[in-house]
Amino acid sequence: MHARSLLFVVPVCQLTLPSFRVNSKYILHWHTFLNFAPMQFLKRIMLIPRSSSMYEHRLAPLRDQKIKMLEIGLGCDMGYGPGASYYTWLEYFPHVDLYYIEYDAECAHKWANKTDKATIFTGDQADTEFLTEFMLTVGGNFDVIIDDGGHTMNQQRASLKTLWPAIKPGGIYFIEDLATSYIAKYGGGAIGSDTMMNDLKIMLDDINRAPEVPITFPKVSNQVVSFEFTQEVVALTKFS
Question: In the CATH scheme, what is the homologous superfamily, with its name and number, of domain 4-238?
Fold first, then answer.
């Protein structure tokens, strides 16, 4: 599929966001972030409770800055419906330049009339030609990229390989739903199989290897300052 920029400018619908107090043992310091999350987004993040605190401590330092952010996946195939994260990002990051990539063009069109503050591109995140054209169009230099798209091995791998150069120094690349590395219909398999999780483990080997050992993923591993793993999510931070 060729890249196509779908920029929609329509009145944003007004939403009164409820105040949440969460006492889960997994979310000890996440009240501030949750206060900005509509119920649809809460349903999404509470599916994986141990991933919750990662977003707070990783994103809180960026909150009052002018940032550029990309999320892959509107949530068109989820029960809570598309656009659930949109209001959270706009409320939590008042100066965000927000982008989405969505495979389902029809869904993206339907959802577009609810926002005037995001730029939506439709295409397949496994298509490196599309991703390259996307970067050329928007200019890269992202502070945050979140891959919450189709979760197949081809999609996760192609997106990381192609979009990693678009992360600015000090920026963060999140990959969600890593459990699909162990699910056959997503291209996953047993531990040690050729999967996204296995690639990440090899990248850890890369940054801890002896000098004479060749690097398997040099374009990513040579620029990663840290990996942070939690349940089904990893955050890769680029050297400043």
Answer: Vaccinia Virus protein VP39 (3.40.50.150)
